[in-house]
Amino acid sequence: MRLLASALLAAMAALYLLTSALQTHAPWLAYVRAFAEAAVVGAVADWFAVVALFRHPFGLPIPHTAIIPRQKDRIADAIGRFVAANLLDLKEVTPRLETMDAAAWLGRWLMEPRHWETVDAGLRRVSPTFLRLLEDTELQAFGEGFVAETLRAFKVTPLLARCLSVALDGECYDGAFNLAADRFRGFLVAHQDTIRKLVGKSSVSWIPGWVDSRVADAILAELIAKLADARDQTAHPWRSEGRRAMQRLIVRLAEDQALARQCEAFKAQLVSQPFLEGAGGWAIAVMREGVARAFGPSAAQSTPLISSDVLRALAHRLEDDAMLRTTFNAAVHDIVLKSVVASRWEVGRFVARVIADWDTPVLVERLELQVGRDLQFIRVNGTLVGGTVGLIIYAASRLFS
Predict the structure, then answer these.
(1) Which of 61, 102, 261, 325 has its CA 20 to 30 Å from the CA of residue 277?
(2) Cβ-Cβ contacts under 8 Å for 356 (sequence gap 6 or more)
(3) How far apart are CA 74 and CA 18, in angstroms?
(4) 340 in helix, strand or coil?
(5) Is the pLDDT score of 299 beyond 60?
(6) How far apart are CA 324 and CA 315, in angstroms?
(7) Per-residue pLDDT at 123
(8) Is the pLDDT of residue 382 over 70?
């Protein structure tokens, strides 16, 4: 485009010289000469304006030229502020997040078999870095210290109370009660002879042994029957009493400071046990072995790291499960709002630093490549518009002279 615009300038200059030489023989050529003369003026003016944006014309330090190189830092700062204040503003981002369905997009993307290879290739690319990270001794030491510090820092009683509340509200309590009833009943059935002997040893000497056996059998039969009833009846008093006992324990965990201190003391004893000292390193070692087996050089290259069935199932789940989609989208929105939007001025400053650190010739070249074609069209249009205006002015002056 630069060559076309320059060629057009040269053509107008040549036309001006030619018509200047021949207009004495053909007076009408004066109109063509006026067009060419004004076109040259317009072309030169627009050439100067375009060049002055990026460099000094002919290398001469003319004032107010080479605008972009001289104002690079100010331009970088302005672009950074524009990105932060406009593109990442909460009022701009929130409506777009509300209309964006990231879960549906991911589901559609995973539905296409050609993307499964992309997932596999991406995992294989990052796996060597992940393996090197897991083999780092400093990370292993950090993991060990992190596990111990985390166990020391968190409070036991709120977590325990929360877990019991969740178990009590859902089906976990009934399942746990049924399991305990089954285990206790099985224990009584398996150890009937031992229980009879214990009853006989605890009885007074003057009571006959067969009486002790009959009493022990009656107690065992009644206990086993009661446990069976409690196991099968959802409204059994034992089941209800167990639920009330758990509710009382939850209240105590929330309010009883003495119980909280006892739990913390037990936790401190547990954390100080030798088997927990290397828990972090052990967890990282297990993770490293698993990653090496799945992603390492010895892993089969022909076998996908994640099977197509898993990816297809995930895609269908994202498509069919409205609750999962809602949760996924809410997480994406939360991440964007709390990381990108909340740090928008840091993002703007980062953009400004990147642009300011660019080499000036590189910046000029990139900008010129982006908008240079349109700028050269300005030169072409300036040539044609200038010529047209010059022709109109000349014709009007001849008309009214």
Answers:
(1) 261
(2) 72, 73, 76, 77
(3) 47
(4) helix
(5) no
(6) 11
(7) 76
(8) yes
Distances (CA, A) of 34 to 41, 43, 260, 385, 394: 11, 14, 99, 13, 6
What residue segments make up the domains of the chain, in order of their start?
2-70+358-400, 149-295
Alpha-helical (H) ranges within 23-155 are: 29-54, 67-70, 72-82, 90-99, 102-111, 114-134, 137-153
Tell me, what's the pLDDT at 160? 82
Residue pair 65/55 in contact by the 8 Å Cβ criterion: yes
Q: Tell me the average pLDDT across 330-340.
A: 87
Spatial CB neighbours of 386, under 8 Å, sequence gap ≥ 6: 38, 39, 40, 41, 42, 43, 45
Please report the pLDDT score of residue 136 as a whole number.
Answer: 65
DSSP states along 208-228 = -HHHHHHHHHHHHHHHHHHHH
Count of positions (residues) in the chain:
401
Contacts of 35 (CB under 8 A, 6+ apart): 387, 388, 390, 391, 394
For all residues of the chain together, what is the average pLDDT? 81
Asked if the model's pLDDT at residue 392 lies above 90, the reply is yes
* Cα 270 to Cα 136: distance, rounded to the nearest angstrom: 28
pTM value is: 0.47
